[in-house]
Amino acid sequence: MRVFEWNGTMLHAKTAVADGKWARVGSTNLNLASWVGNCELDAILEDEPFARQMEEMYLRDLTNATEIVLDARQKPRAQAAPRRSRPVFGSGGGSGGRAAAGAGRIGNAVGAAVTDRRTLQPVEARLTATAAVLLVGLAVLFALFPRVLA
Question: What is the pLDDT of residues 87-113, one digit of tens each?
Answer without folding.
Answer: 544 444 455 666 666 667 677 777 777
